[in-house]
Automatic annotation (TrEMBL):
Domain Rhodanese: 272-361, 368-452
Pfam assignment, any one: Lactamase_B
Stored SMART domains: Lactamase_B, RHOD
Keyword Transmembrane helix part of the UniProt annotation: no
Name used for this protein in its record: Sulfurtransferase
Keyword Metal-binding: yes
InterPro entries on file: Metallo-B-lactamas (IPR001279), Mito_Persulfide_Diox (IPR051682), POD-like_MBL-fold (IPR044528), Rhodanese-like_dom (IPR001763), Rhodanese-like_dom_sf (IPR036873), RibonucZ/Hydroxyglut_hydro (IPR036866)
Swiss-Prot/TrEMBL keywords: Metal-binding, Transferase
Length: 452
């Protein structure tokens, strides 16, 4: 038997292949959008994929379960509560999948979502591991507020938090201490608050160190779980729906993105729709030297997908601009991991500038901060921990497009985050949205000089 963990480091997401070495058969758990790594793994082990299990319809990434089913004819297993629009073989408490000496057993563990399941791996008659999806992480548990939106959201969040309390104690904590924990996410995901950097653990370790498995009254647990939650990117509900429908095949969908000729001159921009955002993935220094109008600088970086799906709404089309063809192709694939490749109107290499960003006089800001409207685009929890400028206006980047009118324009605007990535996106967005009403500056990495 072999368990292979796959990582999408950009979304801090783990997927798994469970291999029976005696039967050369594989069951996949929560596969990412690109199915090719799983096919390669099967080829390397001269094995066949016999099934795909979804622990729940994911909010933060698009799964390739439907593509794998279409190509191989295997069954997709998931809770009967999933309500998917494709054929799903029910996999709820009491159900199991047996191949070789392996038995995969379903546990209904609602809390992150009503339809969440965990999967216990039994080998040679003994429980060896558990795949917990977004229910139990290393050091944390899943948040209960990502799946439903609208007027009943708060009530549902508390209801799911209570279900999480029960799932952790009545199902997962009752497994043997030496059972290996394989979570659906690691540190950096927005599906939890305070995950460990570790990619696996044991039930015994989590009983000792994970706050969510400690001896807490339900009321205290619910209060802790539902407080200070991270923001919810606008693409999350879109991904849940797409995962319930089944996404288009990865490679053909990526190949269908129209790659236009290189933008070298004003003439090359004449057919661009000026109402659409240009998502410019180049580094902030190149962007500030020159970019197209109505551009937002979401740099290539570890959080590209998160901020693309937080700033650009699921129904919007956009252009994608990069420094060269290699970067362009890479970022199209990364956009596809959240199902946004279909929203790219055109992608192109950019070597022309319609606008440039003014550079901040850092010394003047240090000496006269009152002369600026300073916008802090960090998350509320970061601001709560340390407010860097006493009179700054706090608007998290994820909310900025909807709150531009709150920003006074009678003074220059200076934008900061914690290190420069978010402020590059925010300052470029504001520069476009304010339409010359105020000069906009990016404090960028220089923010470190203001932190005590």
């Amino acid at each position: 038997m072999k368990v292979q963990q796959f990582e999408d480091k950009y979304l801090a997401q783990y997927s798994y292949a469970v291999l029976s070495e005696c039967e050369n058969q594989i069951v996949l758990i929560d596969p990412s959008r690109n199915p090719n790594p799983y096919y390669r793994f099967a080829e390397e082990h001269k094995a066949v994929i016999i099934g795909v299990i979804e622990t729940h319809p994911h909010a933060d990434f698009v799964s390739s379960h439907r593509e794998i089913q279409n190509k191989t004819g295997v069954k997709i297993y998931g809770s009967k509560l999933m309500k998917a629009s494709y054929p799903v073989t029910p996999f709820d408490e009491g159900d199991s999948i047996e191949f070789g000496k392996i038995k995969l057993k379903a546990l209904n563990t609602p809390g992150h979502s009503p339809d969440s399941i965990s999967i216990v791996l039994e080998h040679n008659g003994k429980d060896k591991a558990v795949f917990t999806g977004d229910t139990l992480f290393v050091g944390d548990c899943g948040r209960p507020d990502l799946r439903e939106f609208g007027g009943e959201q708060e009530a549902l969040r508390e209801y799911l938090a209570k279900q999480m309390y029960s799932s952790l104690r009545e199902k997962l904590a009752k497994l043997d201490d030496d059972v290996v924990l394989y979570p659906g996410h690691g540190a950096g995901t927005l599906c939890g608050k305070a995950l460990s950097d570790a990619s696996s653990s044991t039930i015994g370790e989590e009983k000792q160190h994970n706050w969510s498995l400690q001896d807490l009254p339900e009321e205290q647990f619910v209060k802790e779980l539902t407080s200070d939650l991270p923001f919810i990117p606008v693409y999350f509900s879109y991904n849940v729906d797409l995962n319930k429908k089944g996404a288009p095949d990865f490679s053909p969908s990526v190949a269908a993105v129209q790659i236009a000729k290189k933008i070298n001159s004003e003439e090359d921009t004449k057919d661009l729709d000026k109402q659409l955002w240009v998502v410019d993935v180049r580094n902030d220094k190149d962007f500030k030297k020159g970019h197209l109008a109505h551009s937002v600088n979401i740099m290539e970086g570890e959080k590209f997908e998160t901020w693309l799906g937080s700033i650009i709404k699921p129904g919007e089309s956009f252009y994608l601009a990069a420094k060269d063809e290699n970067q362009l192709k890479k970022m199209i694939e990364r956009a596809a991991s959240i199902g946004y490749e279909s929203r790219i109107k055109e992608a192109f290499v950019l070597d022309f500038a319609e606008q440039e960003e003014a550079l901040l006089d850092l010394n003047n800001l240090k000496e006269n901060p009152e002369e600026y409207t300073i916008v802090d685009v960090r998350n509320p929890s970061e601001v709560k921990q340390q407010k860097i400028f006493a009179n700054s206006l706090s608007i998290p980047l994820a909310e900025l497009r909807g709150r531009v009118k709150e920003i006074p324009t009678h003074k220059p605007v200076a934008v900061h985050c914690a290190g420069g990535y978010r402020s590059a996106a925010a300052s470029s967005l504001l520069s476009s949205e304010l339409k010359g009403k105020a000069d906009v500056y990016d404090i960028s990495e220089a923010i470190k000089e203001f932190q005590k």
